[in-house]
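Subject: for your reference before the review

Hello V.,

The reviewers asked for a structural picture of the protein, and I figured it would be easier to keep everything in one thread rather than splitting it across files. Below is the amino acid sequence we used in the manuscript, unchanged from the supplementary table.
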Amino acid sequence: ERLAQSKPLGPGLPPPGSAGAAAGGAVDPAAIQLEAVKFLCKEFWTEVFRKQIDKLQTNHRGVFVLKDHELRWLRRLPPEDETARVAAIKMLAFPCGLIRGALSNLGIAAVVSCDFLADGKNMAACSFNIKIKS
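And here is what came back from the structure prediction:
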């Protein structure tokens, strides 16, 4: 919602499509990418899963890791069942596509993959790895 309404992306950043952004101002693409991923973690994830992402990590070079310690869709899967693990991988393809599509609509091309944060007793913990295409 914040990005759709052309509100400023962060301190000192002009709204997308504004005269300040188009006037050759030195807008750091990494800052715009970070703001877009923060938007995904807070606003977008809340709309889809009714909670925010638990942890966001970045190396400030176009790689982001989003961690969700209890993804609602995976909550009831048995932790040590190979069939459940295969089903979970198939289910995680959809949130990966949601992340990729949301970033694409914000003008950011990315590759999104996922992994489990397996601790042996919780199948619902997972991470999403975002690599921004340059």
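For the response letter, the relevant points are probably these. Residues 6-13 have pLDDT under 50 and may be disordered. The two ends are 26 Å apart (CA to CA).

Happy to draft the paragraph if you're swamped.

O.
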